[in-house]
UniProtKB/TrEMBL annotation:
GO molecular function, one term: dioxygenase activity
Gene3D superfamilies: Jelly Rolls
Organism domain of life: Bacteria
Protein name (Swiss-Prot/TrEMBL): 2,4'-dihydroxyacetophenone dioxygenase family protein
Keyword terms, alphabetized: Dioxygenase, Oxidoreductase
InterPro entries (alphabetical): RmlC-like_jellyroll, RmlC_Cupin_sf
Amino acid sequence: MYDEPTDFSKAPPPSDAYRIVEVPDPFRELQARRGVAGTFVGTDPGDSPWIPFGPNAAIRHLAFDVRNNIFSNILWIKKPGVIGTHYHRGQIVMLCLEGSARYLEYDWVATPGGFIQEVPGEAHTLVTDHPEGTKLFGWMQGAIDFYDDEAKFAFTADVWWFMNHYETYCRENGIEINEQLYI
Ligand SMILES: [Fe+2]
């Protein structure tokens, strides 16, 4: 019979060496030749600017992955209001960073630290009631179909839509494209 671990004192070995440690890697050469580097997007507006998303919101793009139709960003809803009804065709994870957000369809309210997971086939309407709105970090996969309040289809946002949103704004405002966003 399998014994479940009961020792919860395990943690990374303590170190104050502040030294880069080379770990054994049987595929080091292959990784150097075929691997890709991770990315970093800092908080400077030059790294990624806030870009208007309708009259009451802005998006700060963080990542685009065209192979997997994945896009990541921070959505900032600036004051109490609604971000349209939408239907998901992929999985979404979000973390509330500031303010608060909820969906008309559910009974919970996300406050800073609150974690949201959404699945394909879900349709819902995002709102914030907080006087200072909300900021939501999102890691999103698959198309999002937006509808108006009469359930009439408006547009589909996928990785290409978000990439175009970023590149068009940069082009029109003389901002250099940040290659770190393209994973
Ligand atoms: Fe959603």
